[in-house]
Amino acid sequence: METDSAIAALGALAQGTRLDVFRLLVQQEPDGIAAGEIARLLDVPQNTMSAHLGILARAGLIRSERRSRSILYRADLAGLRALTLFLVKDCCAGSPALCAPLVAELAPCC
Fold first, then answer.
1. 3-class DSSP assignment, residue 98
2. Residue 1 in contact with residue 85, Cβ under 8 Å?
3. Whether pLDDT at 110 is above 70
4. Of 64, 20, 65, nearest in space to 44 by CA
5. At 41, is the pLDDT very low, low, confident or very high (cuts 50, 70, 90)?
6. Do residues 91 and 105 touch, judged by C-beta distance below 8 A?
7. Which listed residue, 11, 25, 47, 80, has the most CB atoms within 10 A of its CB?
8. Above pLDDT 90, what percent of the chain?
9. Structure confidence by residue, pLDDT tens digits, 45-82
10. What is the pTM of this model?
């Protein structure tokens, strides 16, 4: 991941509603969830939700898929992986032992 892409992803997540949307979509993997349902669950107007979803999609954190009359949104786990790796790539000056607690904490959820 390039620095500009990481900045875009971090910027997209640096807003409360978008962070909530992203976390919800990660929880809904692999099925995804319709835009209207996301708006309902998070109590956000649909037009506002559309703007948030667009920002997350342009940042490479979510993707959409049309199913019948609905658009389902899913977390882009490859984008999340790329961002996470970008953030920890040079972790602890190349000393794996120092990063072991971080890796251990991530392992159960992944």
1. helix
2. yes
3. no
4. 20
5. very high
6. no
7. 25
8. 64
9. 999 999 999 999 999 999 999 988 889 999 999 999 89
10. 0.85
Query: Which runs of E-coded beta strand occur in 19-61?
Result: 33-34
Q: What angle do CA 41, 44, 45 make, to 5 degrees?
A: 125
Q: Considering only CA atoms, which of 51, 49, 78, 48 is closest in space to residue 63?
A: 78
Backbone angles phi, psi at 41, to 5 degrees: -65, -35
Question: Which strand ranges, in their side-by-side order, compose the sheet holding 33-34?
Answer: 33-34, 70-75, 62-67
Cα angle 53, 58, 64; round to 5: 55
Positive/negative CA dihedral, 41, 35, 78, 28: positive
Give me the percent of the chain exceeding a pLDDT of 70.
93
Question: How is 52-67 classified by DSSP, letter by letter?
Answer: HHHHHHHTTSEEEEEE
